[in-house]
Write a structure and sequence with these properties.
Blueprint (H helix, E strand, L loop, with lengths): L2 H6 L4 H37 L8 H37 L8 H40 L10 H18 L7 E7 L5 E7 L6 H46 L3 H16 L1 H34 L8 H24 L1 H8 L1 H42 L1
Antiparallel strand pairs: 1-2
Helix pairs in contact: 2-3, 2-9, 3-4, 3-5, 4-5, 4-6, 4-8, 6-7, 6-8, 8-9, 8-10
């Protein structure tokens, strides 16, 4: 949320207070709660997915990478967005003047040229890791009994590596998009102001990077690919159900022949359902950000000014929707664990095993400590008797 833009617009005080209150509730406290839950959920997912029985499947390798980048993105979002809004926005609400100074806010402005591209890189990794795991799962259920030549752990690690390099290279222009201006006010306080670089202000740069490259790569291609892969996966699962029905009505000899065609699909059926749910959650949570980015691109190119017709839209709807779009990204980053637990039997079984190991370890240490205390007391009582 750009608080500086609020003062440049001819918005009413009611509009400003509405946006600030919405920012505290959704962008601040709600985002903080979802970030904390997301950090815990992704940590738990990583612990379960790295277990020996889980990491032998290439799909889980993608999910491990996805959980790691979600964890890193949530840390940055928590520190530089959710916590910042929670601490800063009350100052703007309680203060009637515009001379509201916050050291935390100035630190954010000083680091923004580095934090924003880094978070964009992590977001791009999240997007294309999701695409990769969807393609991997479709290959599993569509190649019959021989997906091992494509869907291996080694290939998954290679694809993750290349996608990470692609995300880093793609976001390189964004590292040259912002700069920070420094000035000292009459109270000897240092202020940092974020502004676009000379390169970023060029119309050619804006059209090339923001429209012709950013929107297709970040939004259009992944969303279309995920939609197509999801539909194909659903279609394949429907075919699997039909084959399974016919299997039940065949003779034993025919049943054996048909079973060889569907046994691998049946083995990974629940994992495929899980991936479909993950993709649907991703599409739902990413769509508001697509709308926000398209509007920001159009606004930066056209440079339309505030008028009577768009006063309410720009003073309230656009700013609050941007906050909502960022909040939906936190939902996407912490909702996968619930899907894993609901849809994946192997994940639930591994979770039980890990908890059983922890309980047994706790009991072992408790028993060991109890025996140690009893031994100490026994020695103490023996010495007392001798004396």
């Amino acid at each position: 949320m750009s608080l500086n833009n609020l003062t440049n617009f001819s918005c009413t005080n009611d509009d400003i207070h509405f946006v600030l209150n919405f920012g505290i509730i959704i962008g601040g406290w709600s985002s903080m709660i979802t970030c904390i839950l997301g950090l815990l959920a992704n940590t738990f997912s990583i612990i379960i997915l790295v277990q020996e029985r889980m990491r032998t499947l290439s799909t889980n390798i993608y999910l491990i990478a996805l959980a790691i980048v979600n964890f890193l993105w949530l840390i940055l979002f928590f520190i530089f967005y959710a916590l910042r809004l929670t601490l800063i926005l009350p100052l703007f609400i309680s203060s009637n003047n515009e001379d509201t100074y916050s050291t935390y806010n100035q630190i954010f402005h000083r680091l923004s040229p580095y934090i924003v591209p880094l978070m964009n890189t992590l977001q791009l990794c999240i997007i294309y890791y999701t695409v990769a795991v969807s393609v991997d799962r479709y290959l599993y259920i569509s190649t019959g009994l021989n997906p091992s030549q494509y869907c291996t752990v080694r290939n998954a690690l290679r694809i993750i590596f290349f996608l990470t390099i692609f995300a880093i290279v793609f976001t390189l222009p964004h590292w040259f998009k912002f700069r920070v201006l420094t000035y000292i006010d009459d109270k000897n306080r240092t202020h940092y102001q974020i502004t676009y670089t000379t390169l970023a202000q060029e119309k050619i740069f804006q059209k090339l990077i923001n429209i012709y490259i950013y929107v297709p790569i970040v939004h259009v291609i992944p969303l279309i690919t995920l939609s197509i892969i999801n539909m194909l996966t659903v279609r394949r699962l429907i075919q699997y159900h039909d084959e399974h029905r016919r299997l039940l009505s065949k003779s034993i000899r025919q049943m054996t022949l048909i079973r060889t065609k569907v046994i691998y699909s049946r083995r990974h059926y629940h994992v495929s359902i899980m991936l479909i749910a993950v993709v649907l959650l991703f599409l739902l949570c990413r769509f508001p950000m697509l709308i926000t980015n398209l509007y920001e691109v159009q606004h930066s190119i056209i440079d339309d000014k505030l008028t009577k017709d768009n006063l309410y839209f720009q003073c309230r709807i656009q700013l609050t929707f941007n906050t909502f779009a960022n909040f939906m990204q936190t939902i996407n980053s912490n909702g996968n664990l619930i899907i894993y637990l609901l849809c994946c039997h192997n994940f639930r079984e591994t979770t039980r095993e890990v908890f059983d190991k922890l309980v047994n370890l706790f009991r072992f240490h408790s028993t060991e400590n109890l025996l140690s205390m009893m031994h100490i007391r026994s020695r103490t009582s023996t010495r007392s008797t001798v004396m």
